[in-house]
Write a structure and sequence with these properties.
The complex is a heterodimer. By secondary structure, chain A is of the alpha/beta class. Chain A contains eight helices and ten strands. In chain A, a hairpin with a 2-residue loop joins strand 9 (216-221) and strand 10. Chain B has two domains: 3-52 and 271-403, no CATH class; 83-258, no CATH class. Classes of the chains: A alpha/beta, B alpha+beta.
Chain lengths: 253, 405
C-alpha cells in the first residue's frame, strides 16, 4: 500500500446534510501525494476543492473512504486526536494570513508550540521562532505586530508559523489571493525553496500562473478529480522576478 | 500537561487587550471594594457597640426601680422609688457569688469652682462602682467605703467636667461646689468616650451615694442597683435569686408583676448589637449586588470577546488546540480578571475604609475572614460567569471559525 505517499486518499466522499437534503461535495476522490511533492489543487468554486482541503487538513472528516497521513489512518479520529495531528503533522497557510492581531510576529509563530505536548521554556520558544522567522527572511522583524508588516511579510510570518512544528505537509489555501503579483511571486519563491528542502506542499489556487510554480496540478470539478498532470514547464520564482524587473525597466526606459 | 502553557496563552491574550481587561476588572474592583468597605463599616460599628457594652463592666446585673402610675401619669424607670438601700444590702448579704454592689442615684445640676461653672450629671455610687465599671482613675484616688459610710463631701470627676471647670489645672484636692455644698475632689477618671446612646460618659461627677442623697438630691430611694457577679457562669442563677429576693422583700404575691426590672449585661449587649448586625448584613448585601453586576460585566465582555476572537479561536484550533484548551484559556482569562480585580478591590476597600475612619471618624473593622471571603467570591464569580462564554468558544467548529468575518 505504501508507495512513499505522505498523503493517501482512497475513495473519499463528503456529503453535507442540510435538513432533509443531502449535498455531496466530494464524490470519490483517490489521491497519492509523495513526500517532497509540490501540488496545486485547482478548480472553480463549488468544485469541492475547499472541502477536500479541509479533509486533508484534518479539520473535517470524510463521510466515507480512508485518509492515510504519514501511513496512519486519520479518517476516523475524534476532534482532539485530529487537533493533535494538525499540531504535529500539518502546517496551515491561509489566504487572509490569520495572524493574531496586536501580537508580535514571534508570538504568532510560537502559537503552535504552545499546543505541542513537548513543553519548551520561553527562551526555547523564542529561539526556535526566531530561527524559523529568519529562514523566511524576516530576521529583525520579530517584534513587529501584523499591522506593522506588509501583506507579503504577514504571509511570511504565517508560513513560519506553519513550519515551526516541522510538519509532514504544508497546506496553503489561496496563499497569494490577497497579494499583488510581485509579492505573490516572492511567496511562490519561498514555497519553492521549502520544497527543495524536502517539504511537501499542497496549495489551493484558482490562478493558472500561480499553479504553474507547482510540480503537479490536480483539477477538480463537481466533487471529482478532472485531471491530474505533471507541470511541463514549471515556473521558477527567480526567473519570473527577473522577467518582471526587466519589463519594469523597459517601461521606465 | 498543557495547563502551564494555557496560562501563558491566557495572560498573553489579556495583555493584548489591556484597556478591555482593565475595564472588565473594574467592575469586580468596585464590587469587591464596596463589599470590603461596607462590611468593614458594619463590623466597625458592631465592634464599637460591643466595646461600649463591655465598658459597662463584666458580669454586671442592673436592677432598676419600677415605674408607677399616678392619676394616669406613668413615671419612667426608677420613678416608683421601690428600691431601697436595704434592698442593696440584702443582695450583698444573701445572693451568693456577688463581687460588688453599687447603689445608684442620679441627678443633674450646676457645679462650680472659682469663677467657672458647668451643668453636669451627679452620680451617687458606692466605692465598688469603679471596680464594677472597670473604670480606673487617671489621677488621684477614689473615695473609700469609709467616705460612703460617713457621707463625706468628696467626689471624683470625669475628664470633660475637669476640663470645663479647671482647664489645664490639676483638679485633685480642689473644692467643687455642688448645689453650694463644697466637695473635695479626690480623683479624676480616665476618659471613657461616648456611651452607646451617644452620651458623653466623661461629663460626670461621682460621689458617695450617701452624700448625694443626704446633701445634694435628697430622698431615700435608689434609682438602680449595679451588681457584679464574680463568675460569668453564675450570672443567670444570681439574676433569678435577686428577682426572688426582691419579690419577697417587696411582698409581691405570685402572679403579680415585679415592681422592678432586672437586666444583665448580656441582654443589653444583644439588643444593642442586633441593630448593627442587621446594618452589616444590609450594607454587605447592597455591595454584593454590585459584585454580581461586576460578574455579569465579565460575562458580557467574555461573550463579546469570544465573538470578536472567533477567527483567533479558529486559528488556535487549526494549529492544534483542543476544545478543552480553549475552554481553559477563556476560563483562566475570566478568573484572572475577576481575581486580580478582587485583589485590587480588597486593597481599594481597605483604603476606602481607612479614609472613612480618618476623615468621617466612622469606626471600621476589616477582618481577615471578610478579605478571604471576598477574594474567593470574586474568583468564583469569574468561574461562574466565565464558564458559559468559554464553553461557547470551545464548541466552535474550526472550519466555521476560520471563515468567520
Amino acid at each position: 500500500m505504501n508507495n512513499g505517499a505522505v498523503v493517501k486518499l482512497i475513495d473519499v466522499h463528503k456529503v453535507y446534510r442540510t435538513g432533509e437534503m443531502e449535498v455531496p461535495a466530494v464524490r470519490g476522490v483517490s489521491l497519492d501525494i509523495r513526500r517532497a511533492e509540490f501540488v496545486a489543487l485547482m478548480g472553480a468554486s463549488g468544485s469541492g476543492k475547499s472541502t477536500l482541503m479541509n479533509i486533508l487538513g484534518c479539520l473535517d472528516r470524510p463521510t466515507s473512504g480512508r485518509y492515510f497521513l504519514d501511513d496512519a489512518d486519520v479518517s476516523g479520529l475524534d476532534r482532539d486526536r485530529l487537533a493533535d495531528i494538525r499540531n504535529r503533522k500539518i502546517g496551515f497557510v491561509f489566504q487572509n494570513f490569520n495572524l493574531l492581531p496586536r501580537t508580535s510576529a514571534r508570538e504568532n509563530v510560537e502559537l503552535p508550540l504552545l499546543y505541542n505536548p513537548q513543553r519548551l521554556t520561553n527562551a526555547q520558544l523564542r529561539e526556535k521562532a526566531d530561527r524559523v522567522l529568519a529562514s523566511v527572511g524576516l530576521a529583525g522583524r520579530e517584534d513587529h505586530h501584523p499591522s506593522q508588516l506588509s501583506g507579503g511579510q504577514q504571509q511570511r510570518v504565517a508560513i513560519a508559523r506553519a513550519l515551526i512544528n516541522d510538519p509532514e505537509v504544508v497546506l496553503a489555501d489561496e496563499p497569494t489571493g490577497n497579494l499583488d503579483s510581485r509579492t505573490s511571486i516572492e511567496i511562490m519563491g519561498i514555497f519553492q525553496q521549502l520544497n527543495e528542502r524536502g517539504i511537501t506542499i499542497v496549495m489551493v489556487t484558482h490562478e493558472q500562473d500561480i499553479a504553474s510554480y507547482a510540480q503537479r496540478n490536480v483539477v477538480m470539478r463537481d466533487g471529482i478529480v478532472l485531471s491530474d498532470r505533471v507541470v511541463s514547464q514549471q515556473s521558477t520564482a527567480e526567473a519570473e522576478l527577473e522577467k518582471a524587473a526587466r519589463s519594469t525597466r523597459e517601461e521606465a526606459g | 500537561m498543557r495547563v502551564g502553557s494555557t496560562f501563558n496563552v491566557a495572560f498573553r491574550a489579556l495583555r493584548r487587550n489591556k484597556l478591555r481587561s482593565v475595564l472588565t476588572a473594574l467592575g469586580i474592583i468596585i464590587g469587591v471594594g464596596a463589599v470590603i468597605a461596607m462590611v468593614g463599616i458594619g463590623n466597625g460599628a458592631k465592634a464599637q457597640v460591643e466595646a461600649q457594652i463591655a465598658s459597662l463592666g463584666q458580669n454586671v446585673i442592673l436592677i432598676f426601680s419600677g415605674s408607677t402610675t399616678s392619676s394616669g401619669i406613668r413615671t419612667g424607670w426608677g420613678g416608683a422609688g421601690t428600691l431601697k438601700i436595704e434592698d442593696a444590702e440584702a443582695i450583698r448579704r444573701e445572693v451568693p457569688g456577688v463581687a460588688g454592689v453599687s447603689e445608684e442615684v442620679v441627678s443633674t445640676t450646676q457645679v462650680a469652682a472659682g469663677n467657672q461653672n458647668w451643668f453636669t450629671r451627679i452620680y451617687g455610687e458606692s466605692a465598688d462602682y469603679f471596680d464594677i465599671r472597670q473604670w480606673p482613675l487617671a489621677d488621684g484616688a477614689p473615695f473609700t467605703p469609709q467616705d460612703v459610710r460617713s457621707a463625706n463631701k468628696v467626689c471624683v470627676i470625669g475628664r470633660t467636667t475637669a476640663t470645663q471647670i479647671y482647664g489645664n489645672e490639676d483638679p485633685v484636692g480642689q473644692i467643687l461646689r455642688v448645689k453650694e455644698v463644697p466637695f473635695t475632689i479626690t480623683g479624676v477618671l480616665t476618659p471613657k468616650g461616648l456611651s452607646p446612646q451617644g452620651v458623653d460618659q466623661d461629663d460626670i461627677v461621682i460621689m458617695p451615694y450617701t452624700s448625694a442623697m443626704k446633701r445634694v438630691i435628697g430622698g431615700t430611694n435608689l434609682r438602680n442597683i449595679n451588681v457584679q457577679i464574680g463568675d460569668a457562669r453564675q450570672v443567670e442563677a444570681a439574676q433569678q435569686q435577686i428577682i426572688a429576693l426582691l419579690r419577697q422583700r417587696h411582698n409581691i404575691r405570685p402572679g403579680r408583676d415585679d415592681d422592678f426590672t432586672v437586666r444583665n449585661q448580656q441582654e443589653i449587649a444583644e439588643a444593642a448589637t442586633a441593630t448593627s448586625r442587621v446594618m452589616t448584613l444590609l450594607l454587605g448585601a447592597i455591595a454584593g449586588v454590585s459584585l454580581v453586576v461586576g460578574g455579569i460585566g465579565i460575562m458580557n465582555i467574555m461573550l463579546v470577546s469570544v465573538t470578536e476572537r472567533t477567527r483567533e479561536i479558529g486559528v488556535r484550533m487549526a494549529v492544534g488546540a483542543h476544545g478543552n484548551d480553549i475552554l481553559t484559556q477563556f476560563l483562566i482569562e475570566a478568573v484572572t480578571l475577576s481575581s486580580v480585580g478582587g485583589v485590587i478591590g480588597i486593597i481599594c476597600g481597605i483604603g476606602a475604609s481607612r479614609i472613612l475612619s480618618a476623615y468621617a471618624h466612622w469606626p471600621t473593622l476589616i477582618s481577615l475572614s471578610s478579605i478571604l471571603i471576598a477574594f474567593l467570591f470574586s474568583a468564583a464569580v469569574g468561574v461562574f460567569f466565565g464558564f458559559y462564554p468559554a464553553r461557547q468558544a470551545a464548541r466552535l467548529d474550526p472550519i466555521e471559525a476560520l471563515r468567520y468575518e
